[in-house]
Amino acid sequence: MIRSILFRGRVKGKGIVNYDSKEQRWVLRDRFAQDRGYLRHENVKIAKHTFYKVDEKDGKTIWERRLCISSDCLRQAIFSEDFPFQNTMIMHHPDLLMKVVASIPALLRGYLFAEEGKPTLKKKSPLMITGAEQVSNGATHFEINTMSGAKRQKEDADDPSDISMHYEEKIGEVEYAFEGAIDLKELQFISMSETYDRLAVNPDRSENYRKILSAALGSAVDVKRYYCMKHSVIRTPEEGVLLNRVQVVRLIQELVKRLLSLRIQRAKGYAQITNLEAKIVSDPLSDVMGDEKGWKPIRQPNDLKIKPEHVAIFYEPVGDDEAEAIFEKIKINRSEQGTKKKEAKAARKRGKKKDVTESPDSKV
Question: What are the pLDDT digits (tens) for 123-140?
Fold first, then answer.
């Protein structure tokens, strides 16, 4: 049975597509003496890097740096057409909010909608993706650039110029590599309970949610029920919706389609995916990222041949009577525990008052 899917890919492009904070210059100044002249300036644009210790010489560490594209940047690019920008106004429109959470992109990317006084809605993404790290031999360099426009200046500054000079890190052709995984356990279940602090949909709107999501997936989504994970030792039922195997395969194909469309475009550079491979995980002990066996090239979403009957189902239903009996027992025990705490607190207060009354210092 298929438990998860591993993937790895290559991204090629030209120029820098992911910049870091300018405070990163202090790290670079400390580790790379050749760039200290450029990095002494505050107005400098620095690319994101990863760092590796490669040697020790005369008591000093020799560092290597590689360009990288952060996982957040990759994730934003993967879902750029689905979520071109964030708009918190939808939280104040229940119908718009429902259309977002009951969509294929929301199930794939995940979401968090928190509003004071209302239950927080959150869905963890089934997609794990690492940052893309440089694997080509190109080296970056700093160039002086200009930027037109009114400058922001301090009150005590005397500079009327509308031209801003700054140093900017640049590179020519560059290639990156990244890795990731699709978690089918996270993909197939949508929680409508606060039992495990992952309420994804308000249970009062479950029917509306089911209708919208059914239309998006092209097949009927089951009604909400109580479920437990099959092999969990914590058998507390959780109310929610379990997608069927056909719907899980559809979501996998949708995610692969977005990975194949990965492209990041900036004013002075771009990067796009050139190669994608996937491996199906049936045995987590043998089907691992570092083993070269089992990897298949992916050029189209349906190149990943997955039969619905081979998809593992991680949850099993719990009867309503059994679930309600468990929650009733928990409710009773909580109530009794709360009563005992109140009684113990009251007893401690009475004891303190008695000690004060009978204290020798209080007698005349």
Answer: 999 999 999 999 999 988
Which amino acid, 205?
R
* Euclidean distance between CA atoms 254 and 274, whole angstroms: 18
- Residues 32 and 38: their CA atoms lie apart, in Å, by 11
Residue 102, domain member (yes or no): yes
Task: Count Cβ neighbours within 10 Å for each residue of 77-91 and write b for 16 or more, e otherwise.
Answer: bbbbeebeeeeeebe
Evaluate if residue 50 carries a pLDDT over 60: yes
Are 208 and 352 within one domain?
no
Is 52 within the bounds of a domain? yes
CA atoms within 13 A on the CB side of 99: 8
Are 213 and 89 part of one and the same domain? yes
Instruction: State the pTM of this model.
Output: 0.85
Residue 144: pLDDT over 90: no
Residue 25 is given by DSSP the state H
280 and 341 in a single domain? The answer is no
Residues 345 and 268 placed together within one structural domain of the fold: no
The separation between CA 306 and the C-alpha centre of its own chain, rounded to angstroms, equals 25
Asked if residues 140 and 171 have their Cβ atoms less than 8 Å apart, the reply is yes
pLDDT digits (tens, 9 = 90+) for 342-364: 888 888 887 776 666 665 655 54
Q: Tell me which residue range forms the domain holding 330.
A: 322-356
Q: What is the dihedral of CA 310, 296, 272, 13, to 10 degrees?
A: 160
Same domain for 106 and 180?
yes
214 and 308 share a domain?
A: yes
Residue 363 lies in a domain: no
Residues 252 and 342 in one domain: no
Q: pLDDT, tens digit, for every residue of 229-280?
A: 998 898 899 999 999 999 999 999 999 999 999 999 999 999 999 999 999 9
3-state secondary structure of 93: coil
Helix, strand, or coil here: 33? helix
Q: Please check whether residue 362 lies inside any domain of the structure.
A: no
User: Per DSSP, what are the bridge partners of residue 318?
Assistant: 226
Contact 4, 281 (CB under 8 A): yes
User: How far apart are alpha carbons 112 and 110 in whole angstroms?
Assistant: 7
How far apart CA 273 and CA 264 sit, in angstroms, is 9
SS3 188: helix
